[in-house]
């Protein structure tokens, strides 16, 4: 069996698409000292509210050990807080702070402009279709 050509390889196409989407986000975040991983964490916490670390790692597309290391520095930076779970003292519940929300507010306009530019270039309908297809592909793993 032969391998697909790299220009028609799904893993490579997804990586190329990721770079196309993430490049302007990295530029946006570059002056703030916030990495794209930290950006995902505070966005998830802002949208979902306090979360247990394992659920947060999954929602932010991070490996749990990587998230655990990041949380220490994010807590020191005042972007989030961690508390012991009420039902299970072994679990850590992570919450966004006002400083974390300020980072989101400070970048909201630029982030919206990046999304609007992508939508204008790719097309709103095609973008929604792409998101639906990627969601369906992701649902296949469960």
In spatial order, strands of the major sheet run: 1-3-2
The top-level CATH class is Mainly Alpha
Sheet with the most strands, sense and barrel status: 3 strands, antiparallel
- Classified in CATH, the superfamily is Winged helix-like DNA-binding domain superfamily/Winged helix DNA-binding domain
What would the CATH topology be? Arc Repressor Mutant, subunit A
N- and C-termini, Cα separation: 27 Å
Mean pLDDT: 93
Proportion of residues in β-strands: 5-15%
How large is the radius of gyration?
Answer: 18 Å
The domain tally reads 1
Class by SSE composition: mainly alpha
Q: Would you count the extended β strands for me?
A: 3
User: Can you count the helices?
Assistant: 6
- What is the element string, with H for helices and E for strands? HHEHHEEHH
CATH second-level architecture = Orthogonal Bundle
Gross morphology: globular
Parts with pLDDT < 50 across at least 5 consecutive residues: none
Residues in helices, as a percent range: 55-70%
